Amino acid sequence: MALRARALYDFRSENPGEISLREHEVLSLCSEQDIEGWLEGVNSRGDRGLFPASYVQVIRAPAAEPPPPARYANPSQGSDDDWDDDWDDSSTVADEPGALGSSYPDYEAAGGVASGRYRLSTRSELSLGSRGGGSHPAGHPHPPGGSGAKSSATVSRNLNRFSTFVKSGGEAFVLGEASGFVKDGDKLCVVLGPRGPEWQENPYPFQCSIEDPTKQTKFKGMKSYIAYKLVPSHTGQQVHRRYKHFDWLYGRLAEKFPVISVPHLPEKQATGRFEEDFISKRRKGLAWWMDHMCSHPVLAQCDAFQHFLTCPSTDEKAWKQGKRKAEKDEMVGANFFLTISVPTGPGAGLDLQEVESQVDGFKAFTKKMDESALQLNHTANEFARKQVTGFKKEYQKVGHSFKCLSQAFELDQQAFSAGLNQAIAFTAEAYDAIGDLFADQPRQDLDPVMDLLALYQGHLANFPDIIHVQKGALTKVKESKRHVEEGKMELQKAEGIQERCNIISFATLAEINHFHKIRVRDFKSQMQHFLQQQILFFQKVTQKLEEALHKYDSV
């Protein structure tokens, strides 16, 4: 006989792969062996998936008459727009003993001020054994009710351990599992600006140029590479870096800063790496990348970035030491969120509904911007192709036709025809030159626009993961509030979850505001450049035509 179980409590699925249960419902089990507190089975509606083992009782004897089937539909698995799809699975903040007072310590009030290191933790100082209501291993969901103790309620963990919310450390932080020492230099401050939360500005702003890409060799010429000269304005000392150094830095920053949009590097290329056009295009892409790095208040001050900018090119030992230090950085994952300092005091709190609305609005904005950027990139690329090939060919075809007319007229040997023949020949040359102007023009106006679009498409690709972390934190807050309303969780624990969610929300809104600020700056500058180059182009065309026109004055 097939294994069966009866649901002891209602369970609402919140992730792909889970199924909902209704109290007293009889289920068919795929196996009696649980996996980290979860069983797999089929409910009375025919839905197959996972559910908490502690929510059901295995039926050893023949099953009794099943109760009527549940009346509500299985929640949908979500669409591409459903940010909450893979965010919950089973363990708990309630399992982490502790109160709000220790879950988010005040940075300034923490001990160790003289040493510049602050012990920050979202864990409680109480031991597991000191808490009423018993304890459960992490990853095993607790059934509702039980002994009646509020501490038995849990905020679930994500089943999908590969989700961004989990991998970033956001889940562990919100659930109160982060603990580490934060140095003064590691603190990232969010302040309230005129547009809401903002990253605190870099007190020592700087820029860095990328020039003179040169081909170099090593291993007695067996291996070749391109080195770029970097000159940071705050040191004035040039260093040389290869693309692999940029790539290493990008990897470190993307891992360390889960709620910051680290700009993407220009794409790698296996062949044609030493061709002049490719080297020039990559240098321009790296220049945009560097500009965004230097413009970001957090990224610009990161130790790994400063090491990249300042370590002498010839000091291999110093480079490796700095590289190892960056790779051993402890302020990553859940501990990264400990470094974020947010506004406190009256009026500094966040309304979670308002935050959710702002984030949803930004999500819609990025989706529309991404679509329009793809469209503009396609249009610009197609128009540039026509200018380089089609327009040049057509204008030069016109020029060739004028030239043929001029050659025909030259068969007339009379003196009064000479001036006309020369003017028509000059017109032919003018149209030939205009064709060359069309072919060269995309380098001046359309290519820079497409370079900027490529950079922003990288940013737009980053934000779904950033928003995913914030949405994941918000889901945990909603779950903890539900537990409080049902009398299953202490208010103090739920407040700790909300306060940690606020930290992630402050950082997310600060990053969104920085994106908008830099976007307005960049597109204003690029559109001005584009129109200026268009004007110069048509002025050159006009000049060519006017010069040709004046040749007829003496005819």
Automatic annotation (TrEMBL):
Which residue stretches, if any, does this entry annotate as coiled coil?
none
Q: Which GO terms describe its molecular function?
A: phosphatidylinositol binding
Specify the domain of life of the species encoding this protein.
Eukaryota
Q: Which CDD domains match?
A: BAR_SNX18, PX_SNX18, SH3_SNX18
Q: Where in the cell is it found?
A: Cytoplasmic vesicle membrane
Recorded GO cellular component terms are:
cytoplasmic vesicle membrane; plasma membrane
Q: Where is this region: Disordered?
A: 62-106, 124-154
Compositional bias (Acidic residues) at which positions? 79-89
- Domain SH3, first and last residues per copy: 1-61
Query: Which residues of this UniProt protein bind a 1,2-diacyl-sn-glycero-3-phospho-(1D-myo-inositol-4,5-bisphosphate)?
Result: 242, 244, 282
Q: Keyword set for this entry?
A: Cell cycle, Cell division, Cytoplasmic vesicle, Endocytosis, Membrane, Mitosis, Protein transport, SH3 domain, Transport
Q: Which residues form the PX domain?
A: 206-316
The way this protein sits in the membrane is described as: Peripheral membrane protein
**Pfam families linked to this entry:** BAR_3_WASP_bdg, PX, SH3_9
Among PROSITE patterns, the record links this protein to: PX, SH3
Record PANTHER family: SORTING NEXIN, SORTING NEXIN-18
Q: What is this protein called?
A: SNX18 protein
Gene source species: Heliornis fulica
Q: Source gene?
A: Snx18
